[in-house]
Amino acid sequence: MPEIPEAPQASTYRTLCVRTCDGFYFPISFATVPSKFQDDERACQRQCPSAEAILFTHRNPGEDVSQAVSLAGKRYTTLPNAFRYRQEYSASCSCKRPDQTWAQALGRTDSTIERGDIIVTEERSKAMALPKADVSKTAGQAAHLNNPDVTNDAGTDNTEVSRGAIAGPSDVADKRSIRTVGPQFLPAR
Predict the structure, then answer these.
(1) Total-model pTM
(2) What pLDDT band is residue 162 in, cutting at 50, 70 and 90?
(3) Final residue before a domain boundary, out of 106, 125, 146
(4) Would residue 90 be called left, alpha or beta, if left means φ above 0 and alpha means ψ between -120 and 50 degrees?
(5) Distance CA 76, CA 48 (A)
(6) Which range of residues forms the domain containing residue 170?
(7) How many domains does the chain have?
(8) Whole-angstrom Cα distance, residue 116 to residue 72?
(9) Considering the domain boundaries, does residue 125 fall inside one?
(10) Rounded distance between C-alpha atoms, residue 165 and residue 182, angstroms
(11) Burial, 56: exposed, middle or buried (Cβ in 10 Å; 0-12, 13-18, 19+)?
(12) Does 141 lie in the same domain as 62?
């Protein structure tokens, strides 16, 4: 079988954002080139605004954080707090202040948000977790309230309700008549 020569591997780098207060790091880029390091350094600063954070890089594949070097040439392992986050938790060392939410810490102007993206806030998340209302019931109530000529089960008109009288949804639902539209389906024999 003929040997296939190995393809030359491109030299890319992984960039890590490192908090100097506890040595905690998180990735910025997994495969980038030195010309993009300045962009990654700015991204690191934006993602960790409340702590001193430095960008470190190492070759990818083949190296790990123990071989990472800062843009100034300093090795990660020579930091006074290298890997400190593995031994102890420091509440004062965080990328956000204790009184901030992540949205506040990172700022509301996120350059990654595009038109059509759905932003889920804490309030929106809670609303989305609630069970959905019966859409047909809600639509029927709206049509019933907007049409004063429709009569309710008692035979009286709905002028009072449609003009804004206070009536709860259950009051209106109990009094409205149900109209069936469409073909009648018969059970199969």
Answers:
(1) 0.52
(2) very low
(3) 106
(4) beta
(5) 18
(6) 135-175
(7) 2
(8) 40
(9) no
(10) 33
(11) buried
(12) no
